[in-house]
Amino acid sequence: MKKLLLGLLFTTGFAFAQDPVELDLNEAVSYALEHKAEAEKARLDIKSADAKIAEVRASALPNLSASANTTYNPLLQENVLPGEIFGMPGEDIAVAFGKEWTSNATAQLTQTLFNQQVFTGLKAAKSTKEFYQLNAQLTNEEIIERVANAYYQVYQAQQMLENLQSNLELTEQTVEIVQGLFENGLAKKIDYDRTKVALNNLIANRQQVLNSVALSENALKFMIGMPIGQEIRLPERTFDPVILPEINPQMVERTEVQLLNKQLELLNWQKKASIAEYYPSLALVANYGWLGQGDVIPLGNGEDKGVYWSDMSAIGVNLSIPIFNGGATKARVKQNQFEIEKAREDLEDTKLAMELAHANAVAQLENNLLTIQTQEDNVELAREVFEDTQNNYGLGLASLNDMLDAERDLAEAKNNLTNARLDYKLAEVQLLRSQGQLETLTNNTL
Description:
Blueprint: H1 2-15, E1 21-22, H2 25-35, H3 37-58, E2 63-72, E3 78-82, E4 92-96, E5 101-114, H4 116-183, H5 189-224, E6 232-233, H6 255-275, E7 281-294, E8 307-320, H7 328-394, H8 400-434, H9 441-444
Parallel strand pairs: 1-6
Antiparallel strand pairs: 2-5, 3-4, 5-7, 7-8
Protein name: TolC family protein
GO molecular function, one term: porin activity
Family: Belongs to the outer membrane factor (OMF) (TC 1.B.17) family.
């Protein structure tokens, strides 16, 4: 049974194997903007805003409706009339009006002539679309930021793997040296065993780093909306620091600020819509219809069956004047004003946070650049120390502990340099974000 399951797994794996796709940062971002759910939902919000504008615009356009009904009156209502009408003075006579069956069909046209709420709603709907357009832009920027961070982390994992592979090669050389000395009686067996243990530990660590590379690649594929089973390959480049030109942040141009300003605009339109409840409304109403009455169903019957049809029409103007609603409109206006004031506070707080983020990003970028320079020097120094220690060990001037320590120091220096470079690239992303220049990131790549 186990062999059968393994066979099915291998067969399925080969059946769905796909050629690796090479991704640079531009391609990864483009793929994410096209396939990621957040980007698609933002585009749908814009389309929904178009539909909302059309819905509000319909309130200002002519409205045409039609209705028809047939009614059976088993008991006709009687009205009491004075007998003088029928030549019977002094008596009241009950007379039933109408027929047992009535049918009517009516078409009605309504046209808004003045309604401040409708006009305000039209302007607010256009602002709503602009709000969703800005929101879509902000969503794209957030996607770019997340993809860039995930992309650089893949490079970090790959660089860690290269560092480990380099360290593994050095340890293999150490094992060969110690083995040669041991076979010639110039080293102890315990020294040879210790180097083998160190080599085996590195081999085990290599598998862990391989898993880390796979996890970081899967995280990147998730960030861009790519199937997890699709293999990817990043172009062989380094992510050495590139000094960015200082760009003074223009907070008014930041998408977040534009979005909050547009939200303020929408809240003001909402307040105006509430105020518009004080205004009267005026509408033109016109209708035309047919009425059929008889002792049988009027449909399909004429005067020969006792059914009589007549048409009717009316044209009028409806004026509605709000007088008093218990202060509900006044309360809504106050609520709208409070929301506006809260949004203004959010705007000022956001601007302050952006200034802080920019200052922190600049400081972090400068610090990381200094750290990279220090770690580069440290790697060269650690390499020289290791080479000298290795030579001294061969000459019997250094202990095995010294050589293994120098080897570990070199590996740690390389990893520290890799981490410093990653921190720099992540700080670079934050600086571009704080300056509203994230889109330029894909042009500079790595």
